[in-house]
Design goal:
Blueprint (H helix, E strand, L loop, with lengths): L5 E4 L3 H14 L2 E7 L6 H5 L2 E6 L10 H11 L3 E3 L9 H10 L2 E2 L4 H8 L1 H11 L14 H11 L3 E5 L8 E4 L5 H16 L4 E5 L5 E9 L5 E13 L2 E7 L6 H17 L4 E9 L5 E7 L6 H8 L3 H9 L15 E8 L1 E2 L5 E2 L2 E2 L2 E3 L6 E5 L6 E2 L6 E9 L2 H14 L1 E3 L5 H9 L1 H5 L6 H4 L1 H4 L1
Parallel strand pairs: 1-2, 1-4, 2-3, 4-5
Antiparallel strand pairs: 6-7, 6-8, 9-10, 9-12, 10-11, 11-14, 12-13, 14-21, 15-16, 17-20, 18-22, 19-21
The protein binds adenosine-5'-diphosphate (ADP).
Length: 450
């Protein structure tokens, strides 16, 4: 396969810039796309070329396949990097790229199909011998059937949208009396958010840990895992702080989960970067949750401890090169990432878009800022309000926590409200310091953290 010379990045914000940085280092030309709301965005300024793709709502711009492909054609890009979100997990887009003769930097459409719908993924994983969270493997047709099923596996249960993502379309049901109304609202929420009202049922696991495994596969049959990320610090089922190594994994459990993640990827003939997410219960049993068939937001922590550039690896794999390793790369030291959002924790985490009047980004040893903002920039209200991912590395976990706190104390942004104080409170919390915090941590300690 020929070398990639020009990449169109079908995304915006920090991830578009993250991808461009690697392209620049590899001598690959970059093409940005932008909506009306992003005319003055940093990703547009940093790219070699930029194409306008439509009005602010992403449905009318970043999600319009034909516009993106037209920009690729006009610019002469030979590959498209989708980032995360938007078209990154859209199998029909992968097929459209193939048809247009543009390399899609990501897995084949067939692997996305196999992992896209959560119920289909669960069926495929059971077939492959991967343990899944107990529950149904098909969407459940009627309310009566669903209730009978829930009673059979026992409350509490989790109703989940088969087409779900981003923590949406999920509902915990504590007991039978709540079931009918929860079912109806889960169905309508799923339909609204994903255009698909298919809902299935999982056993609700009490206080699990979310531990995910980074996998990488090339086109020559090598599939490896690159360790885990602990993502149990969540608010409304969305990650806020991530770290690696996970403080709760023993080397044995890491090897075991890594092996299962590789098995999961191989079962769907996976190629490129992917993440196999697991829930780990108090007895340290682990269950497949879902696979994300793209680069994750939290990939920098893995880069810190492995010394690898995951975007560069994605590009090399897409060019048909072999992975430069055939076994896992052992982690060195400890890395933590915090997600800085333009939101107000004191007002129920309401997004607070607006103009950034002043910005000072932390520096010093082993601190990394992945961001798409600058002083004078107006954060638009059409997109995810994350403005920066601050990540740090240190030899030990305790030092990494101290470094993350130090970096956060240097972060100054004026003009908009951010969650930096909340993030500092998480890092300073004894339960976080202890390392055995589960997915209930942020909700349980909500008041103490504000
Ligand atoms: P999404 O695709 O929307 O991100 P996931 O299936 O990955 O949804 O789940 C997101 C989070 O929701 C998990 O990390 C976990 O905290 C919680 N969760 C999901 N399923 C369950 C379950 N069966 N029991 C307990 N918590 C769950």
């Amino acid at each position: 396969m020929p070398k990639i010379r020009k990449i169109l990045i079908a995304n915006r914000g920090e991830i578009a810039i993250r991808v461009m940085r690697t392209c620049k280092e590899l001598g690959i030309a970059t093409v940005a796309v932008y909506s009306e709301a992003d005319r003055s965005a940093l990703h547009v300024r940093m790219a070699d070329q930029a194409y306008f793709v439509g009005p602010p709502p992403s449905r009318e711009s970043y999600l319009v396949q034909e516009r993106i492909l037209e920009a690729a054609r006009q610019s002469g890009a030979d590959a498209i990097h989708p980032g995360y979100g938007f078209l990154s997990e859209n199998a029909s887009f992968v097929r459209a790229c193939e048809k247009a003769g543009v390399t899609f930097i990501g897995p084949p459409a067939s692997a996305m199909d196999a992992m896209g719908e959560k119920t289909r993924a669960r069926q495929n994983m059971i077939k492959a011998g991967v343990p899944v969270v107990p529950g149904s493997t098909e969407p459940i047709a009627t309310q009566e059937e669903a209730r009978t099923y829930a009673e059979k596996i026992g409350f509490p249960v989790m109703l989940k949208a088969a087409g779900g993502g981003g923590g949406k379309g999920m509902r915990k049901v504590e007991q039978g009396s709540e079931f009918d109304s929860a079912w109806r609202s889960a169905k309508s929420e799923a339909l609204n958010a994903f255009g698909n009202d298919a809902v299935y049922i999982e056993k609700y696991l009490e206080k699990p840990h979310h531990v995910e495994i980074q996998v990488f596969a090339d086109q020559h049959g090598t599939t490896v895992h690159l360790g885990e990320r602990e993502c149990s610090a969540q608010r409304r089922h969305q990650k806020v702080v991530e770290e690696t190594p996970s403080p709760i994994l023993t080397p044995e459990l890491r090897a075991q989960m890594g092996e299962v993640a590789v098995k999961a990827a191989k079962a769907v003939n996976y190629v490129g970067a992917g993440t196999v997410e697991f829930l780990v219960d108090a007895h340290r049993n682990f269950y497949f949750l879902e696979m994300n068939t793209r680069l994750q937001v939290e990939h920098p922590v893995t880069e810190w401890v492995t010394g690898l550039d995951l975007v560069a690896l994605q590009i090399k794999v897409a060019e048909g090169e072999k992975l430069p390793f055939t076994d896992t790369v052992p982690p060195r030291g400890h890395a933590i990432e915090v997600r800085i959002y333009a939101e107000d924790p004191a007002r129920n985490f309401m997004p607070s878009p607006g103009r950034i009047q002043y910005l000072r980004v932390p520096g010093g040893p082993n601190v990394r800022d992945d961001s798409g903002v600058f002083a004078g920039y107006t954060v638009p209200n059409f997109y995810d309000p994350m403005i920066s991912k601050l990540s740090v590395w240190a030899p030990t976990r305790a030092e990494a926590i101290a470094r993350a706190q130090r970096a956060l104390s240097e972060y100054v942004v004026k003009g908009i409200t951010t969650n930096t104080r909340y993030l500092k409170a998480i890092l300073a919390h004894p339960e976080f310091a202890g390392g055995d915090y589960d997915t209930s941590f942020l909700t349980r300690e909500h008041t103490a953290l504000l």
